[in-house]
């Protein structure tokens, strides 16, 4: 069993590599110093990093769903999105845009979209790296690309996806958004910019508290207790939203790391916290998109 303090330090190093764009050689050197050898370092990294092999919970060919990759343009630039529609549904459905992490539209995010569809929604997961050629298979390259995203263009494309989604058949005309990490930050920015009816942010860095006055939609915010990087922005954001009288529900899950919902990362995934947050998320979306 890995010593908890060693594991926590390893997670911190990996998160610094992921979010501060450190090079992989630096990560390996730091992990080897921590773990005692290059072999042990690689094992630590493998346990923390997302594993595409563990991505699928809902089969892409699940007969309850109609799933397809759609391409076109939004805001005058190439656009791509994974759309999932439940084949059988009682009554119109709300639409949920699923916003990816800083690795782009991965198999895991596509799987999350299928889970949301099975929970009673139309799910649309945009690839916000499409204007740059689309999500690459190499996650390090995807992280490099995400740092060069034209954020105004990404917001405009998301508003375009939301506007198109309102016109889909068998829908309520309401559009929510769920985002994780980079995507969680994106949900907060969309709440400020407008264009959606409800938002759920998982461990997403927050805008400046002064932006809270611009929010016009209900928000649900999920935070990890050990994720101090995001907490530094999240706490003031929640306080500002509440002070401005905005409809916000915020939860901090004790003893868990950033990305605790990502079940493809063995070291960071926390089943109890993930299931609790997921249940709250689905109930929130039903209230706001089907009410």
Would you give an account of this structure?
InterPro entries: AB_hydrolase_fold, Dienelactn_hydro, Dienelactone_hydrolase-like, TAT_signal. This is Carboxymethylenebutenolidase. Its EC number is 3.1.1.45. Keywords: Hydrolase. By secondary structure, this protein is of the alpha/beta class. The protein has two domains: 45 residues, no CATH class; 232 residues, Alpha/Beta hydrolase fold, catalytic domain (Rossmann fold, 3-Layer(aba) Sandwich), CATH 3.40.50. Helices cover 43% and strands 20% of the residues. The protein has nine helices and eight strands. Strands 1-2-4-3-5-6-7-8 form an eight-stranded mixed sheet, with helices on both faces. Strand 1 and strand 2 form a beta hairpin. Helix 1 runs antiparallel to helix 2 and helix 2 crosses helix 3. The longest helix is centred in the C-terminal third of the chain and has 20 residues.
């Amino acid at each position: 069993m890995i010593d908890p303090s060693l594991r926590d330090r390893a997670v911190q190093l990996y998160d610094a590599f992921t979010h501060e764009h450190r090079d992989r050689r630096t990560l390996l050197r730091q992990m080897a110093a921590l773990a005692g050898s290059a072999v042990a370092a690689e094992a630590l990294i493998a346990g923390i990093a997302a594993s595409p092999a563990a991505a699928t919970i809902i089969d892409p060919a699940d007969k309850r769903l109609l799933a397809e990759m759609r391409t076109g343009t939004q805001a005058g630039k190439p656009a791509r999105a994974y759309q999932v529609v439940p084949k059988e549904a009682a009554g119109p459905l709300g639409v949920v845009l699923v916003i990816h992490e800083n690795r782009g539209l991965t198999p895991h995010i596509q799987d999350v979209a299928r889970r949301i569809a099975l929970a009673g929604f139309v799910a649309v997961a945009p690839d916000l790296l499409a204007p740059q050629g689309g999500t690459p298979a190499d996650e390090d390259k995807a992280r490099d690309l995400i740092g060069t995203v034209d954020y105004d263009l990404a917001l405009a494309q998301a508003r375009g996806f939301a506007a198109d989604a309102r016109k889909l058949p068998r829908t309520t005309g309401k559009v929510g958004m769920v985002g994780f990490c980079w995507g969680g930050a994106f949900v907060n920015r969309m709440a400020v910019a407008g264009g959606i009816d409800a938002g759920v942010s998982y461990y997403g860095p927050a805008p400046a508290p002064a932006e809270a006055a611009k929010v016009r939609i209900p928000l649900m915010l999920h935070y990890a207790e050990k994720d101090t990087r995001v907490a530094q922005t999240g706490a003031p954001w929640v306080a500002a939203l509440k002070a401005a009288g905005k409809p916000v529900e915020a939860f901090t899950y004790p003893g868990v790391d950033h990305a605790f919902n990502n079940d493809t990362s063995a070291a960071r995934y926390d089943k109890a916290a993930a299931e609790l947050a997921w249940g709250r998320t689905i109930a929130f979306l039903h209230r706001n998109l089907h009410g």
